[in-house]
Amino acid sequence: TQAYFGRAVPIIVRFRSTLKRGHEELYTPLSFPLGMSGDLSSLGPDGQMMHVGFVKLRELHTMFVAMKERFLDRNIRSLLSGQKPGDETAVNRRLIKAFEEIVISRKTEPAVFAFNHNGVTLFAELFEGGEGHYRITEPRLLNGAQTIGSFDAFIRGHKDNAILAQSTDRLDAIKVMCKVITRSDQDFITTVTICNNRQNPVEPWNLRANDMIQLQLANRFREEVGLFYERQENAFEHFSDEELQEKGLKTGDAVELVRLAQTFLVTDGSIDKLSRMTEVFENDKSYEQVFSPSRLTADFRAICLCYKLQFKLRLLVQSIVDRGQNKYAFLPRARPLLWALMCQAM
Q: What tens digit of pLDDT does each residue of 171-218 get?
């Protein structure tokens, strides 16, 4: 619509439930300036277009700050750990240290960063311009979430540091190689996302994060019980209580994709598959049985009861064993069976 009318056109998205009235969210397409030096382009097999060049990491961070989770919703996982103090992985710590050595202690020149980094990949609804000066509309980060998360943690961790305020030139000089893909459908983008995330282990369930059934489940959990469905790995931990409340979601815990799959398996009586979750997500037939469209017609309050029961199994087992140490000594090894029986009883 923006390309046709030549201006940003707000779109109201209505999420509708068959059981009750949905809610509305105002969706305004966002566009950002993007400088890209050394721009090259390549045409894909079905008309897809890819631009490759070097971009300022700070400009990518600006997109993330403005768009939040929307910037990541085409990815197979959300930001990897590192946005909160004490929550860093080894890679996050190395990235933050690199930023500190470039900007704070000035031990390293900014130009070195692009040599040591694998680069990032974006998808865009529209990519206009030329000669190094572009405008990118509705960008989505396909890989590079760990870099963006670490850069965000670095900026927030040094927000009161006077040196950071005086180092705008060094921040602007930190660049990464960037691929921008346009004119592509979702299947192609999913394949690109998977292939560009090999530097971190990609589990089979990560590859299912953007399936239509997962998006539908997320909508139903939000509408029916006000819970966040964490289809993307690490997505929930990056929302504040205020942000969740603004979305009409409850604070506390989220419903996790793998744990939900285990809940469905238990309620179906397929206890033996709990130890073969990789196989469940890799095999299309097994996956489609677990996440069949019929799940969307279930009572989501009952689903939540069965889901939350797994966190009380230790307490339930102990209370039963206390009634007969010898008689029920086997029960600690039969928790999945107890879970299934409790779900059937409820």
A: 999 999 999 999 988 888 878 887 776 556 668 888 888 889 999 999
Instruction: Indicate the pairing of strand 175-182 with strand 120-123.
Output: parallel
Contact 224, 174 (CB under 8 A): no
pTM over 0.70: no
The DSSP bridge pattern shows strands 133-137 and 31-35 to be antiparallel
Following CA atoms 99, 181, 73, 283 in sequence, which dihedral angle do they give, to the nearest 10 degrees?
-110
Which residues 6+ apart lie within 8 Å of 32 measured at CB? 59, 62, 63, 66, 135, 136, 139
Nearest to residue 346, comparing CAs of 307, 320, 293?
Answer: 307
Q: In the block, which residue shows the tokens 């890679």?
A: 91
- Read out DSSP for 153-220? HHHHHTTT-HHHHT-HHHHHT-EEEEEEEES--HHHHHHHHHHTTTTS---TTGGGTT-HHHHHHHHH
Side-chain-facing half-sphere of 121: CA atoms under 13 Å: 20
